[in-house]
Structure to design on (252 residues):
């Protein structure tokens, strides 16, 4: 593959994700074939306009998904079953027993990128749709209706994914949202003495996300998503009885 074909990162892109996307696109288009060696990290970083740390982050994500593999002292190669891994990587993560918090970390990366991209394309009609969903979520939170709130949450993020016009990430997001729906179904809301307060804490960051879209405030995306997922993580730790383990966290 002519390495000059790699594009430089757009200003609003998450750097590590951008690196991974470009390599995946090259594999899917046949420009990188199974067994091909990737250009050295320094060259990739220069071609894509990212730091070596960002380049390393993107390649590490692909390694964890089994799309590429590294030979110490030699380099990084495209896996021989890379195409299968690209299409089924998310399913394999779930099937391998990756815990709930790690699933939400994947959602955080994907949804942050999707929000940045949605800012570019959002219309007033889209804003109105999101406002209607938020109104339903607020009603569900006020009444302590956990099931209705969970459905509204999924609708909210599906709508943002659709606005982003990013087909690959939208597909990944839709799959993770289906997984999220299953997780919400087993969440034990009775762990909370005040379910209304719990749902309201989860609701507020969605208002912040909508405000970012309304004002097209890309500079605030990372901070807003960090607050959003912090509340989600707090909820999961209690409602799903997630406790620390030697390697991080696990879902009991």
């Amino acid at each position: 593959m002519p390495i000059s074909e790699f594009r430089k990162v757009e200003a609003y892109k998450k750097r590590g994700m951008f690196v991974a996307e470009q390599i995946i696109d090259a594999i899917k288009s046949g420009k990188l074939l199974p067994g091909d060696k990737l250009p050295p990290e320094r060259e990739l970083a220069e071609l894509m306009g990212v730091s070596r740390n960002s380049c390393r982050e993107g390649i590490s994500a692909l390694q964890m998904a089994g799309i590429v593999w590294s030979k110490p002292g030699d380099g990084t190669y495209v896996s021989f079953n890379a195409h299968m891994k690209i299409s089924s990587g998310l399913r394999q993560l779930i099937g391998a027993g990756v815990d709930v918090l790690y699933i939400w970390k994947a959602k955080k990366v994907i949804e942050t990128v999707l929000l940045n991209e949605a800012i570019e394309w959002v219309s007033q009609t889209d804003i109105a749709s999101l406002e209607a969903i938020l109104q339903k979520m607020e009603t569900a939170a006020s009444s302590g209706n956990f099931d209705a709130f969970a459905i509204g949450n999924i609708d909210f993020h599906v709508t943002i994914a659709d606005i982003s016009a990013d087909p690959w990430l939208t597909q990944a997001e839709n799959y993770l949202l289906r997984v999220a729906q299953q997780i919400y179904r087993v969440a034990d809301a009775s762990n909370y003495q005040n379910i209304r307060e719990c749902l309201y804490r989860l609701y507020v960051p969605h208002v912040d996300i909508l405000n970012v879209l309304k004002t097209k405030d890309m500079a605030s995306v990372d901070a807003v998503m960090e607050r959003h997922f912090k509340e989600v993580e707090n909820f999961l730790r209690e409602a799903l009885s997630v406790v620390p383990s030697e390697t991080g966290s696990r879902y009991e």
In short: The beta strands are 68-71, 75-78, 242-245, 248-251. Residues 97-251 form a domain with the Four Helix Bundle (Hemerythrin (Met), subunit A) fold (CATH 1.20.120.530). The first strand starts at residue 68 and ends at 71.
